[in-house]
Design a protein that fits this description.
This protein has 156 residues and is of the alpha+beta class. The chain contains 4 helices and 5 strands. The chain is 39% helix and 24% strand. The N and C termini lie far apart (41 Å). This is GNAT family N-acetyltransferase.
Amino acid sequence: MNIHIQLLTKDSMNQKIGNEILELWNENAKETADCELEKSDREAILNQLEQYLQSQYGAIYIATNENHQIIGFGLASIKKELMYDTIYGQIDEIYVLPAYRRQKIAKRLVDELVNWFNEKHDTSVVNVYVDLENDLALEFWEGVGLEREFFMLSNN
């Protein structure tokens, strides 16, 4: 199986790619939240993707199969920690279609995002938010070298 990982740019992004990412995002919503994206959600996500492409502080990577179909994606952004006046990388989204899991595609996406953090922004700290009840995600992130640091509490 020949999987290609690519950084999207303003020039390489088009409506077809945006729609394919939206469909994967919708699959992720169905899997993790047992719901589908509404029209307003889809519009907000497209807007978010556009903001990532317009900013030097955002990155979108896609994974494609041998038929050039998008089978996964990863989004990352650079954040500023105001208290210590430092920057860090945040992996905002990773998704790979179920049929392509357990083939190290998500790991390859993470590696590309981490390389982007290091090469473009010289930051070695990487954060990701994970639902504490999502054991598979926790196992994945620990498997790629991230450690549990703290628990975030919310009123949801």
